[in-house]
Each structure stands twice: as structure tokens, then as C-alpha cells.
Amino acid sequence: MQNADEYAESPQPRRITVERDGPMVVEGPVEVVTEDGTVAVSRRFAVAVCTCRRSAAYPWCDTSHRARPPRSRGRGEDRGR
Ligand code: FES
Fold it and tell me: Which InterPro entries did the record assign (predicted)?
């Protein structure tokens, strides 16, 4: 694991791509610490981190987010006006 000084000297910031109603795609390798302290490690070039918490492979996305209905885009939008 890198310390704070090593991160400060990194030539490129780590890129995280946020997908609407989907995962965050993080350039790897990466460690994710879950709320119970479990550390998940991915050494892949890029990994999708689950933001919906429906993944059976949490914290990694397993595409379960695709099964949920689209989020309301604004107040009253889903009220059948
Ligand atoms: S974001 Fe894909 S399963 Fe949660």
C-alpha cells in the first residue's frame, strides 16, 4: 500500500468514471474498504464498483443494477401527468 507522500508524487490522478444509475468505473489496481472493514482488491486495468448495493459480488458490479427501474429524473415526473 502507498503512503500519502507516494500518492502526492503520482504523475497522473486516478480516473473514476461515474455512470448514471450504474457503477463507478475505477482505473486499477484498486482496494475498496467496505463499511465492515473488509478489503477487496482488484488488480485489473479497470474495475466497476457497485453503487446500487444489489451486486452479489459487492463491492464489484455484477450488472444487477440493470434490473432496477430507472430513477425518477425530477419531482412529479412519475406521477402520470
Ligand atoms: S452498480 Fe452494478 S450491480 Fe450495483
Answer: FeS-contain_CDGSH-typ, MitoNEET_CISD
